[in-house]
């Protein structure tokens, strides 16, 4: 179930309000599964270990976001800006990452099982220990070497 108070706080402002609150409440479980944050400006947001499963984050700006160990299974991240985001050890099973910008993103140890990576940009992305198939990589746009 979505925590409406957390959603309201997140919508107040990322860098000042939300990230400060996260620093002050590091052990609080973040429950935002199924939430609609499409087209939201969430650059540099701290959503580490948050439950965002089945959330709509399409076209959202999540550049430099901390999504490490986040639950993003079944989430819609199509067209999202995830450049330089930390998605290490994130659960992205069956996520829609079509046309997403993942340049310089840290996907080390992430689970991309059955994720849609068609036309996703993976230039310079860190893929060490990532569960990703050769077929998924062939559908993505990789102009530069990814590790």
Can you give a write-up of this model?
By secondary structure, this protein is mainly α. The chain has helices at 4-12, 14-24, 134-139. The protein is globular and about 40 Å long. The model has no long low-confidence stretch (mean pLDDT 93).
Strand content: under 5%
Helix/strand/pairing category: mainly alpha
How many separate helices?
3
Report the span from N to C terminus.
Answer: 37 Å
| Broad shape | globular
**Approximately how much helix is present in the residues?**
10-25%
Q: Overall pLDDT, averaged?
A: 93
Low-pLDDT segments, ≥5 res: none
In short:
This protein has three helices and no strands.
Feature tags:
147 residues; mainly alpha; 3 helices
Strand and helix layout:
Blueprint: H1 4-12, H2 14-24, H3 134-139
């Amino acid at each position: 179930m979505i925590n409406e108070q957390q959603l309201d706080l997140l919508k107040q402002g990322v860098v000042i309000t939300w990230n400060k609150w996260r620093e002050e409440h590091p052990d609080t479980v973040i429950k935002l599964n199924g939430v609609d944050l499409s087209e939201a400006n969430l650059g540099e947001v701290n959503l580490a270990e948050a439950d965002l499963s089945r959330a709509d984050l399409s076209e959202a700006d999540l550049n430099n976001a901390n999504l490490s160990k986040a639950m993003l299974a079944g989430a819609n991240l199509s067209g999202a800006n995830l450049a330089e985001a930390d998605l290490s050890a994130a659960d992205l099973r069956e996520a829609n990452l079509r046309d997403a910008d993942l340049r310089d993103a840290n996907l080390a140890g992430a689970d991309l099982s059955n994720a849609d990576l068609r036309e996703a940009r993976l230039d310079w992305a860190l893929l060490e220990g990532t569960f990703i198939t050769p077929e998924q990589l062939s559908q993505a746009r990789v102009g530069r070497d990814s590790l």
